[in-house]
């Protein structure tokens, strides 16, 4: 019974993954699509460029970002599995 529930959960996850991959627009439109309002004269303009990094991560590099998240999740689950104590 547990294997059936696990298989259903895995199939639902796979369906969600396939749906998100198929609905993602894979064509990059360029930076013209993301226009920011210029800062007012009294305000300081940020120098870090973190906004540009965020836009690139979630537009251009969204698929590698998701794959990396899955790899890190798998490694975390594996580390917990290896580190747990066996009950004798």
Folded structure, characterized:
This protein has helices spanning 2-23, 50-59, 62-83. The relative contact order is 0.06. The protein has one domain (2-34, 47-83). The protein has 88 residues and is an all-alpha fold.
Backbone shape = elongated
Q: What is the helix fraction of residues, given as a range?
A: 55-70%
Order of helices and strands: HHH
What is the terminal separation in angstroms?
25 Å
Provide the number of structural domains. Answer: 1
Number of strands: 0
Largest sheet: none
Structural class: mainly alpha
Which terms would index this structure?
88 residues; mainly alpha
Compose a concise summary of this entry.
With 88 residues, the protein is mostly helical. 61% of the residues lie in helices and 0% in strands.
Give the topology.
Layout: H1 2-23, H2 50-59, H3 62-83
